[in-house]
């Protein structure tokens, strides 16, 4: 299998991009306990995003993570700039990475985008979290992607995961 198509290679290629340690079996096993454990773990979001790309729904985790970063912005000037980028990328109709949110939530964001608050994307983020938790997370746990990762760590340990 070529490195371009090997899912495991894609995950561990991140090693070359500055991630200093590898995902552990303990962390991978915790992901099956709850979606929150997956999304708040060290490597969970990166690996989950790699899986979501196979489902063509990685915009969900990208938006959720972008909202987490957005909430930490303290400068109003930067908040306005980032809010507009989030809106253009994920919220506006026909956005390049448009997320699936209902019309009232979209309209509320449109109303608030001129003077964005720290919480102006909270409802959209909550909806996307629920989408992922109910839809793609159960499929992730059942997927060959997750099962192979777990099995590789159980049978070989971490050291043999690196190419």
TrEMBL record:
Give the matching SUPFAM superfamilies. Regulator of G-protein signaling, RGS
> Secretion signal: which residues?
none
Name the UniProt record assigns to this protein: RGS13 protein
Q: Which gene encodes it?
A: Rgs13
Provenance organism: Dromas ardeola
Which superkingdom does the taxonomy of this entry point to?
Eukaryota
**Residue ranges of the RGS domain?**
34-150
Q: Which PROSITE patterns match?
A: RGS (PS50132)
